[in-house]
Amino acid sequence: MFDIPEGMIYLNGNSLGPMPKEAPSAINAFLIDEWRTELVKGWNTKNWFIKSNLLGDRIGSLMGAINGTTVVGDTLSIKVFQAVAAGLAMAPKRRVILSDNGNFPTDLYMVEGLINLRNAGYTLRTPNPEDVYSQITDEVAVLMITEVDYRNSRKHDMKALIAKAHSVGATVVWDMAHSIGALPIDVTDTNTDFAVGCTYKYLNGGPGAPAFIYVAPRLLDTVEPALSGWFAHEAPFAFDLGFRPMPGKIDRMRIGTQSIAAFTLLETALDIWDDVNLYDVRSKSIELSEFFISQVEAKCQGLTLISPRDPNQRGSHVAFQFENGYECMQALIAQGVIGDFRAPDVMRFGITPLFINLDDIEKAVTVLSNILNDKIWNKPEFHNRSLVT
Amino acid sequence: MFDIPEGMIYLNGNSLGPMPKEAPSAINAFLIDEWRTELVKGWNTKNWFIKSNLLGDRIGSLMGAINGTTVVGDTLSIKVFQAVAAGLAMAPKRRVILSDNGNFPTDLYMVEGLINLRNAGYTLRTPNPEDVYSQITDEVAVLMITEVDYRNSRKHDMKALIAKAHSVGATVVWDMAHSIGALPIDVTDTNTDFAVGCTYKYLNGGPGAPAFIYVAPRLLDTVEPALSGWFAHEAPFAFDLGFRPMPGKIDRMRIGTQSIAAFTLLETALDIWDDVNLYDVRSKSIELSEFFISQVEAKCQGLTLISPRDPNQRGSHVAFQFENGYECMQALIAQGVIGDFRAPDVMRFGITPLFINLDDIEKAVTVLSNILNDKIWNKPEFHNRSLVT
Fold first, then answer.
1. Among candidates A39, A34, A28, A229, which has minimal Cα distance to B16?
2. A311: which of A181, A206, A290, B21 is 20 to 30 A away, CA to CA?
């Protein structure tokens, strides 16, 4: 399913997924049979023009969305901007955007930029994640929440947050960066307004793979695209001077001309998901995570779990605090166990059942435990090696 | 240099450039040696994190920009938005954005969206191209101009427009979509404020290849990113809650995580330009275009040149009006001569000296002339064929 270097235990699929085995042949076919051969005709003959929609529908199927409500393109930062801007337009008298201080910073940065552009007295509130629910009031225009915390894996109850937001007339933007491909999620059941996410983590679309945006069908007639490029126009090839958003269709959230090479890699990665049940992925992820935590706590003194202990409160990665976490992670990586480190002292491990099993977890903990027993970072040879990641 | 199907005469490099011969091996090396092998470490070990800058500098060298003033990423629509928003921030009391009705529509659409977001009484003016110069007044905050008209190839005098704009305190956004790789351009000599462009036309980066943005060095300390993603932050990996734009560097115009596959294809395409002199490209393009026009006018009755007759007033494509232009273009394409058609009656032909020579032009005119003599669209077999492009 994936081509992973021999002997590597890759516990970082929450950051960048590994390469699907079919990626090289798929991209070669795109280059030779599409770009080389069809050239500009490929926009029609090879469906390049509607690939953002075709891929959007496939991602939609992983989150309970009906066809025609999701498109792929741009970056998650751009899609967050679009979604929040659209939400603000729906509540013209409100001036509060509510998020939390566990959100991934680019979401907050993009909203800061949006607030500056609007220049109309908007405020971005970032309370602690556990205080978000109580701060959902009728002042709030948009609630912008990343379901799973990129650091400690704490998971919000999106259904509850969305219900409360709707009860006070607020719109919700759900960032699924660490949800899509990891959790069974359902935008229809939760009555989601907007969802956005990236495809290079659990979906394995490749470094910098395109983002996606979902808009509830009930909003598609009126939603403001904000970033109104020609791919969002009702008739892009009429080349009208004035913008008319595609009526009633998710196409209105498309912007400019997207990389078809990037789309091709994502398409190949999505083929894998055709045969995957996300409930199975989730239960396997919990099994592996529980085993990992119990083994680390039994064998790796000094590491403290900072992810929620209740698996239902976690996403699909696990984080530990450790004072020598940086050096420890360098040593792990040097020995082929790939996690990552977040300053000042957090070690993160992604648990991705599509390519990680119990045996991998057991081996990873053995390597970790040996490193801790050796206190490898106290040895001069550790510092003589080039271990930059 | 390029892999073009045998027998095809490709006169559409102004829309989508052909595939460089090295593209398949380059992308395969990226997949196998970078994504597969390095996985998340590639952001450092393979320079993914700074590739937007490395490629930006290489594009900068094609337009007289010094290193550190150009970055690659996103789409041209997004980069237009960023540049115009930044220009508006520099003239907070002015309320006019001046463009023209020959601009490519997505530029106008993005500005329309920006005006809606700002909601502060801005006006977009789109006079005829020949009236732009006289409409540059001290009301104008930003002059947004695409140098070469995508339809008829008419070329603005950017140096004169920029000088006049500066004399009244306006900022200029120069869209180089049909300039970069086709014309010797110089952002330094012209004292350009902002330049943006795409890389899938004359630069041959592939369908939907990333865009670029240039910002004058004198503006880099203060320019507002507008779309302020984490790649623009002074310290992206500090994960601060507040946005601090990278001081004094073009990095502040980066936004989110970009497709490294798309960057790899562009990198390969840019290798070709290392050995190319743009003055030579331009003089060869003029020679080929003059020959094409003279041959069409001598041999192809019914076609009327709508591009400027003076080659110094044209970009690198040539357009003719013809009442049966649609059918004629279908017939040309069916016979391997690829141009394109713009409603209602315009036939466009891109003249790209890197892969088109006098012999190609002569053959193309012969095919065109035969189609016209035959009035092929009056024959039943023409309509029985599938000729959709």
1. A39
2. A206
Average pLDDT value for residue range A364-380: 91
Would you give the DSSP letter of residue B27? H
At A296, list the tokens. 């680390």
For residue B107, pLDDT beyond 60 = yes
Statement: residue A384 has pLDDT above 70: no
For the record, the structure tokens of B309 come out as 């007759």
Beta-strand ranges (E) seen in B103-227 are 123-125, 140-146, 171-175, 194-198, 211-215
Check CB contact of B64 with chain A, cutoff 8 Å. no
Tell me which chain A residues have a C-beta less than 8 angstroms from the C-beta of B388. Answer: 44-45
Give how many domains chain B has, as a whole number: 2
- DSSP, collapsed to helix, strand or coil, labels residue B20 as strand
Whole-complex ipTM: 0.97
pLDDT given for residue B388 in this prediction? 42
Is the entire prediction scored with pTM above 0.95? yes
Note whether residue B340 is domain-resident.
Answer: yes
B267 lies in the same domain as B301: no
Are B16 and A105 in contact (CB < 8 Å)? no
B281 and B268 together in one domain: no
On whether both A343 and A219 belong to a single domain, the answer is no
Query: Six-digit token pair at A297?
Result: 């706590």
- Do B113 and B229 share a domain, yes or no? yes
Q: What is the pLDDT of residues A28-43, one digit of tens each?
A: 999 999 999 999 999 9
**Is B287 found in the same domain as B231?**
no
Residue B33: its chain A contacts at CB < 8 A?
none
Does residue A125 lie within any of the structural domains?
yes
Residue B168 at interface with chain A, using a CB cutoff of 8 Å: no
Full residue range of the structural domain in which residue A370 is found: 2-19+277-384
Q: Tens digits of per-residue pLDDT, B295-330?
A: 999 999 999 999 999 999 999 999 999 999 999 999
